[in-house]
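One record is set out below.
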Amino acid sequence: MEIKYSEKAVKQIKQIMKGDRQSAIAIIGIIEAYAKNPGGNFDIKTLKGKYAEFKRLRVGKYRIIFDDDGKVMVIYEVKHRQEAYYD
């Protein structure tokens, strides 16, 4: 599966990299692992409400908001769990 990052997600990952390099590396690793094997054992939930068309992938204390159609995985946001759902 191809991975595409929004500009916002790229900025957020760079910001995480500055403060918590280990978590940023884990985030990128989990995204790549999911893209290779979407049927694997990942903590994924479909969101509700105004974000109902998106999914959430949990990586430690960070949440990755994304969508995939089986061919392309689009990463929209990568946020700390306390900030992830309040936009």
Observations:
- The CA atoms of residues 1 and 70 lie 7 Å apart.
- The helical segments are 7-19, 21-36.
- The first helix runs from residue 7 to 19.
